[in-house]
Design goal:
heterotrimer; A mainly alpha (about 280); B alpha/beta (about 325); C alpha/beta (about 325); A: about 280 residues; mainly alpha; elongated; B: alpha/beta; eight-stranded mixed β-sheet; four-stranded antiparallel β-sheet; 11 helices
Chain lengths: ~280, ~325, ~325
């Protein structure tokens, strides 16, 4: 499945969508900047090396914050946290959601009923308020955010995976596999998973986007980790330390812009993947 | 000749959706309603009928892909009706199925090698990659497909309908199964390709010594390939006998109707003259009382509405279930 | 004068690797009240011919050709005017092209819609006409208020025929009208079509891969291969004495229940790539009678017997 020729073909179709390539480019730029942070960031973000609230200059391209830390450096390192939280939270959601969807869809019956009722409950509850309440209770922090996001976010993916599993389960090739004598495990791993993989990946990418946005939102409300600054936490500090009042736009826009851009990037990639895999499923 | 396979009074009922919330009595669709026949080693036993007659369900019952509601299934003398999953799994190495739709019976994400090799993996027969490849190549050669690396790397999308069906056959043969249920194996193929796969199946039968149960609505193909034919109508077998006799000297009025309806290959003014009725094959939830065919039968008598006819041998090997015993 | 003439039709589909020459130089005509069959394997271009006549080609284009209806050229007509031809004078019965019946509307409503979009009839009038049409196709008119899924396969097919006849067209094109039907239902539908055709003096083009049904329901038949016509003629003559090697091969690949012998022959290989067409005769790679000239030069269609045309170097023309 992961043959070289498949990947080449995949890339050929993928790059026909300009938005998809654009999205990939954005994400790639961010990832590179984040990975090479120590080489790119002009200063160490834990050091106060400038005056407070300095507006952008050649020395400090994005100015400084209230305690004199270089914002550009802070921004680059904050990207690490934002992206990491996004990736971990999205992975947890994808793993939980897919497993629930797979088991529910494949086995049906009582198991399906129970799991789907649980899914319904999670879907009905208002996500954001619930996350805020839980995070407030558990205390602010990076892992808190990852935890509350995962608890609330797996349900929608579970439903989607389940409906895909239901349709694949009825395919003739699955029946053929049973006729050969294959058991449930073999069918699930060998036939069902590869055929729903596309949906999972496409949704997974969108989940990264949602996770990053959610983390930004929760952190802005003060539920993030002040010692591990993400872009959302930067905005939180910008707010409580008076950047808004002082008009220190160089502290406010950059984190906001980064959040928006990277979300856009993942969105474009996810949408393109959704289309591509949807096409493949419908193709004869 | 020994009997390789036998079913006795096989029945499958499916619950029907209740037409109103208030109907108490549970209604059932009698998909297969008391089918009995046996298949001898080396023969091609045809089961012929139109859609809705139950032949597809019967195909799945034979291999226990669907569990019978009642009745017994015997394979090589052994009662397999209630075997558990692991016992059935062992048996499945000897009894296999070829499916109708070449476009959905192969996993779109697997290549030819993995598709044909799947039975080997499922039954843990070969672990070594090169042995697996060898066996796959043998199988591919049997079905007249190239045993090359490039062909084995293809995925279903890159194959034609005929090639896909042949891959399906290769998959079935790799474990050495000798008893094969073919469910409309060529009905979705084009004329020429159809002929190709049909001839292949016959060749394989000679070469390997296969026994087929061939299920189809295409009577001309069944006539060509089968030694005996059973005609199904609404879940029951109404006529059974040698292919030549059933097609050329049909006893049951339904069989006669079918034979009249088949367009001969060459223009024939007489075709279709007997097709005057409007009735179509209904999906009866509760089948009509008496003989199921009586609403459409030109020879229906009073007894036909009340009493189901028994399946009786009229000539050597030729049996029919009909009250109207046509002396011809 | 024939009702429909098709001259040198070429319809190509656009693919990444170049144009696929689905129909590549096809000419024929249909007389008033005649039933013409077009036979061939899938991919030979027969459906494309139908879609070209109806100007419903998607993903491709008619790159050359003249199609006239009663002398009026159709291909260059502005689409606004052609819409009136479509369904009023030529209609199409096809599972694939028109998607069959819409499952969310009653069949009566669908026939009524066909009528009211083309004529100024009021709904009540149109409904009456719909009931009449259903009676003509031997469906109880009370079923007009049923949804498609409440009808059997055969009835749905007949409802589509009713819809195609709604505006009294002069030509009906039926593309594989009985493929999904059982043998008895198929016989009923074909008999019905033949009967209606004679009664209403409608011309029919019947497209199918199944030679046996064409043999029973058509007056003339065209055999297509890889976008070209290889043989064309009277149904009796063609079946009795097929001339083109492909026609012969095709006929002998059908198991005939009425024949004495149980022989079946298979033509090896598969139809050629429509993008990279071979030079010379398109059939030469599979032809049992191939000669050198066949690889070099494309054969032209010649009349080898009255009204019997063949495109083959090996067949001597009528003098």
């Amino acid at each position: 499945m992961l043959k070289k020729s498949n990947l080449i073909e995949f890339w050929r179709v993928y790059k026909q969508r300009k938005t998809a390539v654009f999205g990939l480019a954005i994400v790639a730029v961010f990832v590179l900047a984040i990975v090479f942070a120590p080489y790119i960031a002009p200063y160490d973000p834990s050091l106060r090396i400038g005056a407070a609230f300095e507006s952008p200059s050649w020395q400090h391209l994005l100015g400084t914050n209230d305690i004199g830390v270089d914002i550009l450096s802070e921004l680059i390192y904050a990207g690490r946290i934002s992206l990491m939280v996004g990736l971990i939270a999205a992975s947890l959601v994808v793993m939980t959601g897919s497993t629930v969807g797979l088991i529910s869809g494949y086995f049906g019956g009582v198991v399906d009923e129970i799991l789907m009722r649980m899914t319904d409950i999670v879907l009905i509850l208002p996500r954001f308020p619930l996350m805020i309440v839980m995070a407030a209770y558990l205390g602010p922090g990076m892992w808190t955010i990852i935890f509350v996001y995962s608890v609330v976010g797996w349900a929608s993916l579970a439903r989607q995976v389940r409906s895909q599993v239901l349709s694949v389960k009825e395919s003739t090739f699955v029946e053929a596999s049973r006729a050969i004598g294959a058991g449930n495990t073999h069918i699930m791993t060998s036939h069902i998973l590869p055929n729903i993989g596309g949906i999972i990946i496409a949704n997974g990418v969108m989940e990264i986007m949602f996770a990053i946005l959610t983390e930004a939102g929760l952190s802005f409300l003060g539920l993030g980790d002040p010692t591990h600054k993400s872009w959302g936490v930067m905005l939180y500090f910008a707010q409580i330390r008076g950047a808004f009042l002082r008009g220190a736009w160089w502290w406010i826009f950059p984190p906001g812009l980064c959040i928006s851009l990277i979300s856009c990037g993942f969105n474009f990639i996810g949408t393109a993947l959704n289309d591509l895999f949807g096409l493949k499923l419908g193709k004869r | 000749m020994e009997t390789v396979f036998r079913v006795a009074d096989l029945r499958k009922l499916f619950p029907a959706k209740r037409s109103s919330l208030f109907k108490r009595k549970r209604q059932f669709i009698h998909a297969v309603d008391g089918v009995t026949f046996e298949v001898k080693k080396g023969e091609t036993f045809g089961i012929v009928g139109e859609s809705g007659c139950g032949k597809t369900t019967l195909a799945r019952l034979i291999l226990r892909l669907v569990e019978p509601t009642s009745g017994r299934i015997f394979f090589k003398g052994q009662d397999i009706t209630s075997l558990n999953r692991s016992e059935m799994k062992r048996l499945r190495r000897q009894m296999q199925m070829i499916f109708q739709d070449p476009y959905s019976s192969l996993d779109p994400r697997k290549n030819v090698l993995n598709i044909v090799a799947e039975p080997l993996r499922v039954h843990n027969i070969a672990k070594d990659g090169s042995i697996i490849k060898e066996k796959v190549q043998e199988s591919l050669r049997l079905v007249d497909l190239p045993a090359s690396e490039s062909f084995m790397a293809k995925i279903p999308d890159e194959l034609s309908g005929g090639e896909r069906q042949r891959v399906g056959v290769a998959r079935v043969l790799i474990l050495g199964a000798e008893f094969i249920v073919a469910d409309e194996p060529v009905s979705m193929l084009d004329a020429n390709v159809k002929a190709g796969v049909t001839l292949l199946m016959m060749e394989l039968k000679q070469k390997i010594g296969l026994t087929y149960i061939y299920i189809t609505h295409e009577i001309s193909v069944a006539y060509y390939i089968c030694s005996r034919i059973a005609v199904m109508y609404l879940g029951k077998i109404v006529e059974l006998g040698n292919a030549e006799e059933v097609v050329n000297l049909p006893l049951h009025p339904y069989t006669r109707l079918l034979m009249e309806a088949i367009p001969p290959l060459h223009p024939d003014d007489k075709w279709g003259k007997a097709i005057s009725e409007r009735g179509e094959l209904p999906l009866f939830i509760e089948p009509p009382s008496g003989c199921r065919f009586h609403p459409r039968c030109p020879h229906a008598q009073d007894i036909c509405k009340v009493e189901e006819p028994e399946f009786v041998e009229v000539r050597g090997g030729h049996s029919v279930a009909c009250h109207y015993k046509n002396p011809s | 004068m024939p009702l429909l003439t098709v001259e040198n039709l070429r319809t190509y589909y656009f693919t990444e690797k170049g144009p696929a020459k689905a129909v590549d130089g096809v000419s024929f005509s249909v007389d008033k009240g005649e039933s013409l069959g077009i036979a061939g394997e899938s991919g030979c271009g027969k459906s494309t011919v139908a879609l070209s006549i109806m100007r419903l080609i998607k993903g491709g284009k008619v790159v050359q050709g003249n199609i006239t209806l009663d002398g009026t050229p159709l291909l260059d007509m502005p689409i606004r005017d052609f819409r009136r031809i479509r369904w009023e004078r030529i209609s199409l019965v096809s599972q694939a092209a028109m998607g069959g019946l819409n499952p969310v509307y009653r069949i009566g409503d669908q026939i009524v819609e066909a009528i009211t979009t083309h004529t100024k009839s009021k709904k009540a009038e149109a409904w009456k006409r719909a009931e009449e049409l259903l009676k003509q196709v031997e469906i109880d008119p009370s079923r007009a208020s049923n949804y498609p899924h409440e009808l059997s396969g055969g009835m749905r097919q007949r409802a589509m025929i009713a819809m195609a006849l709604a505006l009294n067209p002069e030509l009906v094109i039926a593309d594989e009208p009985t493929t999904a039907l059982d043998v008895v239902t198929q016989a009923q539908v074909l008999k019905l079509m033949r009967g209606l055709q004679r009664e209403l003096n409608v011309s029919i083009i019947l497209i199918s891969h199944d030679l046996s049904i064409l043999g029973q329901t058509c007056d003339r038949i065209i055999i297509m291969y890889a976008g070209k016509i290889v043989e064309m003629g009277d149904v009796q003559a063609l079946f009795r004495e097929p001339r083109h090697p492909y026609t012969k091969a095709l006929l002998s690949s059908f198991p005939d229940i009425k024949s004495e012998s149980r022989t079946l022959t298979v033509l090896p290989g598969s139809p050629p790539d429509l993008i990279d067409t071979p030079s010379g005769c398109r059939f030469y790679p599979r032809c049992p009678q191939v000669q050198d000239i066949c690889k070099a030069k494309e054969p032209t269609i010649i009349e080898v017997a009255p009204k019997h045309y063949v495109a083959c170097h090996q067949v001597k023309g009528a003098s």
